[in-house]
Amino acid sequence: MRERKPKKNPSEKLPARERLANWISTPAGRVRRKLSAENQEEVRKIILSPVSWFKGVDTPEGHVTPWELAIFMISTMLTCGGGGFSGRLDFLFKEYYHIAPNKMSIAGVISSLWDAINDPILGSWMDRKKMGPKQWRFVMRLAAVTGHVFVLFKMINFGGNMTEMQHLVTLVALNCIQDIIGTLDSVAGQKLRAGISPYTQQRTRTQVWTSIGNSLGFVIAAIPNVLMGLQNVFGWNDYQIIVVGTAIMLPFNICGSMMITFIKQRVDFKYAGKPINSLPSIPERDIILEKKMQEENPEPTPEELAQREAEAREAEIRYRKARAERDEMLAQMTRREKREWKKEQKAKEKDFREMVENGEIEIDPETGEPKLSMLQSFEVVKYNKYFIWNTVANFITVFTPSVDSTLIYRYLVPRFRINGKEVTGEIFLTIRDYIVGIPISFTKPFSRQFVNWCGGPLRVHKLHSIIQVAASLLKFVLGINKFWKLAIQIVIDAGLYVIQDMDSVAGTMLTYEMLDLVELKTGFRTEGVTNSINGLFAKIVTNNIGTVTGNAFLQWTGYTGGYKESGEALPPKFVKYMWPMFTLSGAFDNLIFLLARSMYKHTPEDARRIENELIEMRKHAGIGKAESEETVSAGKQ
User: Fold this and answer.
1) Could you tell me which residues come within 8 angstroms of residue 346 by beta carbon, excluding any fewer than 6 positions away?
2) How far does the chain reach from its first CA to its final CA, in angstroms?
3) Among 281-285, 439-443, 464-468, 577-581, which is the least confidently predicted range?
4) Rounded CA gap, 341 and 339, in Å?
5) Coil, strand, or helix at residue 299?
6) pLDDT tens profile 75-87
7) Three-state secondary structure of 413-437
């Protein structure tokens, strides 16, 4: 007979939660075999102790905790939701105030010039200024309040009895002040994000959950379209919908912008008694820092004080000697020899560490840190090929007209009757945005894994540009004058949203990897310069020059605004050329970026090598906490 298995004692039976955790850890089954050991352990922790897992108990060193990721998600959800109202400033001016597009361009050009002067200067100044997480948090919290209040004030101020010129002057003045606030906020935010973890993969997780928050915030951001589509029902005009909505969302916007200032910093780039970033130990700088620390500590003994003063004098002598030798060499050269020497210095790759040690870069007597000039700050950036070619592509595409999709759906999409009810363009735009957001809701949490699976961020960038060019051409051919054509466009946009999300994550990964590369080669962090210039082009494209050329295009079509309320016929040029401009301009921009990103190489193997070497360099330089000999895979959970 077949032997019966002995029955287990019911008292020895494991709880259901523990049995499920053990099942996950068992390397069997099609799904479980695909989970890495790290992911299996992560899932096991979630099942056994979800609260401890959420708080980040026993989280590996340098890893971002789940509650911090939740902060990024909620923060973005709140600011994105409020942006659905406050982001319609330009639409309000044209449709409600009937300000001519070309006159709005005057304010845009002046704001662009201010951007060009303010952003790089302010960003490089922040790179050179002795500021740490405490100061960056203060800057971001101050900017959270003032920045959002200025947006509301611009809307309300235009509702008064002012002339058109007074409107424009007020707008320019507020734009310039707000640009200073925005630059300080973006640079400080970039530095806080860079310090959240030494691992690129971990920092990229914050971008993934930021993207998830953006999708959740869209539910609120779409409300203005719904209300404008139902104006006949509620009787509200554009001003009431946008301005009142912005005022209601103001506290949520401020709260959302402040939330990420509570994130823990795991990489200390600057702190007393340690070298800046990953620069090697330099005696004169270390002595200055040590003297500064002594001011906050009990007085040293006379012997210690005498020894330190002697060391400081010796360091100063070495520093002056290096400068004197260099000056003497230059003094003995002829003008021609000097020009040749300068060309050689400019042509060869400078080692910024050697420049500090040889006295070519001064040491700040107050902070003991190297003082980079404005030119040197930009010279450091030359190692960032991704940044350079992105800047070139942005410069080429900066004049591409910015076309408001709300105007297209408001005036060019025909009204449909569904179940006996008329659906306007704004309502259809909202329905479309909700539908195209469904697939991305499932793919967003895995965007980082998709980027890695596709072969790295640079390959995803190229794939995104190719798909965007093809999709833009297809959408141009289809048009939007039939319901079935709109349905096909919804399917196309749903796929584009997924690849756009992957492209956004890829951009974050490449940005951090290239900033790490610059630090590896030079010892300096350059978030200020790179972020300010990136922000400069982003603002110019979306809010200034792109809007200027877009306004010029609208003016050329004969657009004056307010056609929905007045019932007047649309200009023929507006009807004929708005859709081609909207689709083909996107194809042109993506083609330029595809060419730019084909001009350099960067593989995931390069990223892992840079990350490991930088961790070792920081460890030897005395920066941050001592790291065990972890591989980069430790940062991929």
Assistant:
1) none
2) 51
3) 281-285
4) 5
5) coil
6) 888 888 888 888 8
7) CCCEEECCEEECHHHHHHHHHHHHH
